[in-house]
Amino acid sequence: MRRGFWLRFAEFIVRPLLTVFTRRTWLGHDNVPSTGPAIFVANHTSWADPLVIAHFLYDRPREMRFLIKSGLFRVPLVGTVLRSSGQIPVHRSTRNAGDALHTAAVRIRAGEAPLIYPEGTITRDPDLWPMQGKTGAARLFLDTGAPVIPIVQWGAQQIHDHRTSKVRLRPRTPVTVSAGPPVDLSAYVGASPTGPVLKEITDVIMRRLRDDLAELRGEPAPTGPLFTLEESPRGLAQ
Questions:
Q1: pLDDT for 130-170, tens place per residue?
Q2: What is the pLDDT of residue 60?
Q3: Strands of 148-154's sheet in order across
Q4: CA angle, corner 70, sides to 50 and 78, nearest 5?
Q5: Region labeled Disordered — which residues (predicted)?
Q6: Within 10 Å of residue 35's Cβ, how many Cβ atoms?
Q7: N or C: which end of the chain has fewer CB within 10 A?
Q8: Taking residues 58-80, what's their average pLDDT?
Q9: CATH number at residue 30
Q10: Which residues have C-beta within 8 Å of that of residue 28, sequence separation ≥ 6?
Q11: Secondary structure E strands in 91-207
């Protein structure tokens, strides 16, 4: 895995902090292909979990390519690191919103493995289970045929709790990340990207993330439909 100056700079700053403030359990590294095209999908519970997942992938090692909201690319220094390390900006709610998926598909065909949060935002489920997903990962699968690798994480919400906006930097906060075998989407190979097909694939992916997270948490997965933003308390659906 090639790492340019700015990625090495970020590693120099961030990795020692994560080493101090987290106690890490990495599971399923063998399910993360070290090379070749793939689509990583992950549950999203906190602003801290991208750093934790990046650490997990870095230790595989595997290059880190995230689809990240474009506003972060305007933050001094942070934007420089993101651009120079090949992260993919997502221009949400604009006419350029689809550019991120086009860029991701090009990168996948070139042998890269971008990570996408299918929910598109931090979960608003009160118990931090995955919500109903958006169709980006499904579109990438139909466009590229790359395997969809589920990654679930738990513990990062103890560092940053989105529900209370509290940040707790406590040494050795336990965090666990687990990668599973590819999601079985064989029934959809060669399918047309119609609305119903995209929704079916998305639901398969989100249920797999929910079930893998349940195993990681040691709790039964919730039954019934996936939580939606429409169910969020007033003020939390932004």
A1: 999 999 999 999 999 999 999 999 999 999 998 888 999 99
A2: 92
A3: 22-27, 173-179, 148-154, 39-42, 115-116
A4: 60
A5: 217-238
A6: 11
A7: C
A8: 87
A9: 3.40.1130.10
A10: 178, 179, 180
A11: 115-116, 148-154, 160-161, 166-167, 173-179
